[in-house]
Amino acid sequence: MIWVIHTLNGISFGMLLFLMAAGLSLIYGLMKILNLTHGSYYLVGGYIGLTVMRLTGSFLLAIVAAIFVVALIGAAMERFFLRRFHLDELPQTLLTFGFLLIFGDLCLWIWGGDPIMIPKPSILAQSVPLGDYVFPLYRLFLIAVGLVVAAGLWWFQQRTRFGTMLRAGVDDVEIARALGINVSLLFTLIFALGATLAALGGVLAAPILSLYPGADFEVLILAFVVVIVGGLGSLRGALVGGLLIGLLDNFGKAFFPQFALFTVFVPMAFILSIRPTGLFGSR
Amino acid sequence: MSARSRNAIALAAAILVVVLALPHLLKPYYLGLTSKMLIFALFAMSLDLILGYVGLASLGHAAFFGVGAYTAGLLLLRAGVGNAIAFPAALVASTAIGAGIGLLALRARGSYLLMITFALAQVVWSIAFGWRSLTNGDDGMPGIPRPNFGWSLDNTTGFFYFVVIVVAIAALLLAMMVRSPFGLALRGIRESESRMQALGYNIWRYKFVAFVLASSFAGLAGVLYAYYNHFVGPEYLSVIQSAEALIMVILGGAGTLIGPAIGAAVIVFLEDFISSMSERWTLILGVIYVLVVLFAPRGLIGLFDDFRTRRARP
Question: Chain B closest CA to A184's CA: distance in Å?
């Protein structure tokens, strides 16, 4: 039974990683930007959620506010900073790293250095019986949210007009532009969408993982591992990679605490050496 | 004697005078800071060998810096051997890790290369951070002894001279390397890979050798920094350190050796100066990243060149 608990824990963490990796992957797939600020979107989103939760007591409002603010930050970064260095990876990476430092320090300044948890919404604060154990309902909720977001993103990509434009842009930006697609708007919106997913991840993670300085780096690094394992630019890769890394991380921490991070990185290096483009990456 | 070699001798003499005078001019604190600048100048120059001369951007260069430092630290503190073994072993280890990471990473290019070097460096970091019984985890290992060649390195002046000599030899080697046929081939690869391939150069082998050499020099800088602090910790290997090397190179000017050295000195000085007045150094460093990318993409050397051409053609 303890295996079931660990597995469910791993899957729920994997869903959070999926939210992070999906945004990274979307942004990379379309714009080839390695967005290191993605970790900040998670942390800033979480902290804004925290403040709104303290003010209003509403978890839903916390999520909405975090998404709104962070999507604006993402859109502004794309439009005013990253756009002028289109396909020039070094300046883009340095810019996003600079913003990662700036937002990290601003969060430390505003919210302090101690880990803070957002309380779980009361309906989700219970536990459900699972054989001889009990399992927190909130983690099951995370799994459900992850699945809903995955389905929503798939529908958006495959079944909507905007999703078709996105796929066209991923395949060939120049041709997409020549066909009359507003690529410039597409870039900004996809960047905002990626930021949205990270902010959602930040608020959802806060009740179980808490918010603290440095969480931005930790989650960013795991999200990159997911993307490398799953394949850049692939939504399916982000989901499978997220679950895989979530499980590896959980079982690693449970059974080999000394080598907790190692259980995540060694499979990554292995996949990298036999399939450099990841499990589901094209090219 | 040609004007060029006369200039070189004049420059060398000037540097020698400055080096001999510095310990008398600077307070010990600032002499120590100068040693740190030199160490990071070497670290930045080693990155520039691949970034500026081959055009390979790596976000994992601190892995080699850290492996050099950790190897020396582990051998000196855990295995109880002397610096006569630990120092060369550290260089061998960082070179070997460079070869391993190079084999995996160099198939990629552009932003994918940045991501893979980042992730692989993180593997090394996770070992240093996680293997507490060996490395003390995030507490790091204090008490690393400096080598002893009959002159004491435990005072600031002695250590300064040691760093000057090591960094000068390394910089000379790097300068000879980038001017050699090998270095010219690297620049050719940076300008046009396909053309160099057509000329019969084995592109991958050149990239790989450059990458491994850059790792060795980064490892050397790492050992020096372990001596400097008498300490090594996981932050030596972190992505923050890797990114800082990148910004030093870009701030100074990629594709020259003097540029990254200047960039490193500026960043080290600013870190010391601003940290002494404000707790917000990280914030300011982030702003420096943004400003450099926006306003000095070719670095201080580039700004200087622009200024000169503008003066020359009014």
Answer: 20
Domains of chain A with CATH codes? 2-274 (1.10.3470)
pLDDT for residue A283 is more than 60: no
Segment A55-76 mean pLDDT: 96
- Report the helix count and the strand count for chain A, using DSSP H and E: 11, 2
Distance CA A69, CA B207 (A): 43
Please identify which residue in the block is written with the tokens 């690529």: A183
| pLDDT at residue A174 tops 70 | yes
Instruction: Specify the pLDDT at position B314.
Output: 56
Q: Which of A115, A116, A152, A122 is nearest to A138 (CA)?
A: A122
Rg (CA), chain A: 19
CA dist., res. A137 & res. A14, Å (int): 16
Rounded (5°) CA angle B151-B156-B158? 20
Of A98, A232, A259, the CB nearest to B130: A259
Q: A203, A206, A201: which is closest to A226 by C-alpha?
A: A201
Listed residue (B75, B92, B58) closest to B211, CA to CA:
B58
Closest by alpha carbon to B258, among B9, B5, B15?
B15
Tens of pLDDT, residue by residue over A82-92, are: 999 988 999 99
Contact A210, A55 (CB under 8 A): no
Q: What angle do CA B150, B151, B152 make, to 5 degrees?
A: 115
pTM of the model: 0.94
Q: Give the residue among A21, A24, A241, A268 at the shortest CA–CA distance from B122.
A: A268
Q: What pLDDT shows up at residue B132?
A: 86
Give the model's pLDDT for residue A71. 97
| Residue whose pair of structure tokens reads 């190897």 in the numeric block | B71
Instruction: Give the other-Cβ count within 10 Å of A8's Cβ.
Output: 18
Give pLDDT < 70 ranges for chain B. 1, 313-314
Query: Which residues of A are less than 8 Å from B240 in CB distance?
Result: 101
Using CA atoms, how far apart are residues A184 and A188, in angstroms rounded to an integer? 7
As a whole number of angstroms, the distance between CA B101 and CA B93 comes to 12
Q: What is the mean pLDDT of chain B?
A: 93
Give CA–CA dist A192/A194, Å, rounded.
5
Residues of chain A neighbouring B288 (CB-CB closer than 8 A): 98
**Which of the given ranges, A57-66, A163-172, A246-255, has the highest pLDDT on average?**
A57-66
User: Which residues sit opposite B198 in a β-bridge?
Assistant: none
Residue with the two structure tokens 């910004």: B247
Spatial CA neighbour of A223 closest among A11, A25, A53, A5: A25
Burial class (CB in 10 A: 0-12, 13-18, 19+), A31: buried
Q: CA-CA distance, A131 to A133, in Å (whole number)?
A: 5
DSSP letter assigned to residue A119: P
Asked whether the beta carbons of residue A105 and residue B133 sit closer than 8 angstroms, the reply is no
Query: ipTM above 0.85?
Result: yes
Residue contact A94–B293, C-beta within 8 A: yes
Predicted local distance difference test score (pLDDT) of residue A48: 97
